[in-house]
């Protein structure tokens, strides 16, 4: 029971990380585009990790 709640929490932590990196990328785009692209890549990776975790969490429940 506690493990399911912690897995669900980690899913949403990935979304929070994606939002933070997206905002950081948007803010640094004009100043340093190379660094902004790295932030965008990390944001995309966090979104992919969210969907991966969500999919594997569903498989564990079934």
Walkthrough of the structure:
It is a single chain. The protein has helices at 2-28, 33-61. With 62 residues, it is an all-alpha fold. The chain has one domain (11-61). Helix 1 runs antiparallel to helix 2 (33-61). The longest helix has 29 residues, at 33-61. The model has no long low-confidence stretch (mean pLDDT 90).
Keywords:
mainly alpha, 62 residues
Shape, principal axes of CA atoms:
elongated
Which secondary-structure class do the elements indicate?
mainly alpha
Question: What's the alpha carbon Rg, rounded to whole Å?
Answer: 14 Å
Could you report the average pLDDT, rounded to the nearest whole number? Answer: 90
Number of strands: 0
Describe the main β-sheet briefly.
Answer: none
Ranges with pLDDT <50 over ≥5 residues? none
Number of domains: 1
Helix content: over 70%
Order of helices and strands: HH
Instruction: Report the β-strand fraction as a percent range.
Output: under 5%
Gap from first CA to last CA: 15 Å
């Amino acid at each position: 029971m506690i493990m399911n709640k912690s897995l669900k929490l980690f899913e949403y932590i990935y979304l929070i990380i994606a939002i933070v990196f997206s905002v950081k990328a948007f803010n640094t785009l004009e100043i340093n585009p190379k660094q902004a692209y790295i932030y965008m890549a990390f944001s995309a990776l966090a979104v992919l990790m969210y969907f991966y975790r969500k999919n594997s969490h569903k498989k564990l429940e079934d």
